[in-house]
Amino acid sequence: MSPANHLPGGDEEAVEVLLVMTDDGLPEPTYAHPGDAGADLVTAVDVVLPPLGRATVPTGVRIALPDGYAAFVHPRSGLAARHGLTVVNAPGTVDAGYRGEIQVTLLNTDAERPVELRRGDRIAQLVVQRVERARFVRAERLPGSHRGEGGFGSSGGWRGEDAAPPAVDA
């Protein structure tokens, strides 16, 4: 195994994911560094995303996850920071039963510049995780919690122009 695909503690700790490449000219998903959570996915085609444009891009990768696992397609932080490129439904979910090619719907959030991708460019990260199935049980009411019904923005953290200045003790 190449160092780029190294997993801490050795492969015996890694979940086995069966892989079929639909295009032998593309690299298999690999981890760039030891300890990385996501394996890189590449584009199988050249694509130009116009400003604010989106496209669904094939990766040449088909996988079979074991029951109890899912894979999540995340944006690459460098592409997001430098070019405004993101994954529309981030993270995209690949269920254990899916056997088709993994495709990534990319969005160019830059309002002025196109993003040009070439076949083989890294476009996203695939994170494989154990997932639990839930048994949903109807109830008349829910138990209380510290947060209660507080939703979007309920924990604070952003002080916009409309926010009152912090209190100062004199």
Account of the protein in words:
It is a single chain. This protein is mainly beta. It has a single domain (3-130), classed as Deoxyuridine 5'-Triphosphate Nucleotidohydrolase, Chain A (Distorted Sandwich), CATH 2.70.40. The protein has one helix at residues 77-83; strands spanning 18-21, 39-42, 47-49, 54-64, 69-75, 85-87, 92-94, 101-108, 115-117, 122-130. The strands form 3 sheets. Strands 1-4-8-6 form a 4-stranded antiparallel sheet. A 4-stranded antiparallel sheet has the order 2-10-5-7. A two-stranded antiparallel ribbon has the order 3-9. It starts with 17 loop residues before the first strand and ends in a 40-residue tail after the last strand.
Write a concise keyword list for the protein shown above.
mainly beta, Deoxyuridine 5'-Triphosphate Nucleotidohydrolase, Chain A, 10 strands, four-stranded antiparallel β-sheet, 170 residues, single chain
**Helix coverage percent of residues?**
under 10%
Number of contiguous helices: 1
| Global shape | globular
The CATH H-level superfamily is Deoxyuridine triphosphatase (dUTPase)
Major β-sheet strand ordering: 1-4-8-6
Instruction: Please tell me the total number of domains.
Output: 1
Q: Would you summarize the structure shown here?
A:
By secondary structure, this protein is mainly beta. The chain has a single domain (3-130), classed as Deoxyuridine 5'-Triphosphate Nucleotidohydrolase, Chain A. It is built from one helix and ten strands.
